[in-house]
Amino acid sequence: INRYEVSRHFKRITGYNFKTYLILIRISIAKDLLVNTNLSISEITNKVGYSSESLFIRMFKKYENVTPTRYRLSYKYD
Predict the structure, then answer these.
(1) What is the pTM of this model?
(2) CA distance 20 to 26
């Protein structure tokens, strides 16, 4: 089995290509850390596997339509 077949089967099963699926997993973990810990955005960036804080913030905003800081603040007052 070659990597293209694996990629096709992965998308058929999950509905996402591998890169998008990985981003969604990372964001899901980050959301939990933002709400349930006092870790800084920088610490969360590293914990979820991003080497660049700006890239993490950009991806978070792209998929959640809000920055990580605003996401955290929205849960502090609920």
Answers:
(1) 0.88
(2) 10
